Amino acid sequence: MNDISIIGTGLWYPEELTTNKEIVDSFNTYVDNFNIENASLIESGKIKARSHSSEEFILKASGIKTRRIIDKKNSLNPNIMKPITDNEDESKLSFLAKVGIEAAKKAMSEANISADQIDGVILGTSHSGRNYPAVAIEIQEELGIDGYAYDMLVGCSSTTFALSNAYTDIASGMADTILVINPEITSPGFNFTNRDVHFIFGDGCVATILQRSNNFGFKIIDRKLVTKFSNNIRSNLSYLNRTASDQKTEDELLFYQNGRSVFKEVCPLVAKTILEQLSKNNISPNEISKFWLHQANGKMIRLIVSKVLGTDTFDEDLAPLPMKDFGNLASAGSMFAFNLYNDLKKGEKGIICSFGAGYSIGSLIVEKN
Q1: Which among 28, 68, 205, 363 could disulfide-bond with 183, CB atoms 3.0 to 4.6 Å apart, if both were Cys?
Q2: Is the peptide bond before 133 cis (omega within 30 degrees of 0)?
Q3: Is 81 part of any domain?
């Protein structure tokens, strides 16, 4: 029995919703305050006046209607505009470990396995909680799992790359069952005062169990990983900031993207990757029952699926959009879509695909057992 399958998934996310209206009202109040406080500098031309956001702009640009963030109160306070968090400290469990454990327990319950059956823990994220010790090892310790654990980071493809690593470890014989955890606590890492990004992200975590199995869950038929360097999605936050001679502002260290370039360059690359993968496996695009794609942007998802299918019209149930409710969940988005919309029949196939900073693309073809 050599088949390797996804046998369980679990989600964690903040309970409280943040609507587009709430985030726009907060941002526009911040803008009004900024423009009043800097009126003389704006009038002299030394700085530019800031512009309002709108619900219509957000919906058209992204398709997002709500998102869930860890500290709504402070993130939407026009005088603060960011979540308030605690520093990492050895006296307490890290926040990423807490949410990872909650998602992991749900995945283990769905898979009907216990900690003593898990051989390894892989944590993949685009927003690392600390340099060391690995949060995966912290989770391993708390859950009572023997074996090994490590963290990894590949931007918004961290989840699919981690799933691929887990597959490789199982296929090699090093493990039989692996827990993959993908916490994406994005809100501390982006700028709520930037009109182009203040509405994009949400916070969440997904956990996935992979096991050597052919009678339960979703069998992984194929994996494909692609990377191509680009600065169009970037964060300059680093431990080197402390010692850098060329100081950057806090805003310059946070998430940045050139949205138009990303759209033009990434969509064709993702579609090409998926088509090549399907061709290699002698699978027609029309045989795919679900596209669980990275929840970056509704327009991107529709364009990619249209390119793969060769048509501008398709049933939107084919490519679920949980981003409407959860926002962009960075690397966790594709598996959020999988967890919430995996009602396939035996023998039906789907694609789990992520794409993002790097550029990085990870694509898995799966089949319902």
Answers
A1: 205
A2: yes
A3: no
CA distances (Å), origin 342, targets 8, 306, 313: 11, 21, 22
Q: Would you state the structure tokens that stand for residue 132, as one six-digit string?
A: 């060391």
CA angle 254, 260, 263 (to 5 degrees): 100
How many domains, the chain? Answer: 3
Q: What is residue 293's three-state secondary structure? A: strand
CATH code, 330: 3.40.47.10
280 contact partners, CB below 8 Å, separation of at least 6: 222
Q: pLDDT digits over 20-55, tens only? A: 999 999 999 999 999 999 999 999 999 999 999 999
Q: Which residues are part of the catalytic machinery?
A: 156
Q: Which two tokens stand for residue 163?
A: 């799933």
User: Does one domain contain both 333 and 194?
Assistant: no
Residue range 211-227, pLDDT digits in tens? 997 788 999 999 999 99
36: containing domain: 18-75
Let me know whether 227 and 347 are in one domain: yes
> Does residue 84 lie within any of the structural domains?
no
- β-partners of residue 179 are 121, 209
Asked if 71 and 84 count as a contact pair (C-beta separation under 8 A), the reply is yes
Q: What residue has token string 């370039």?
A: 261
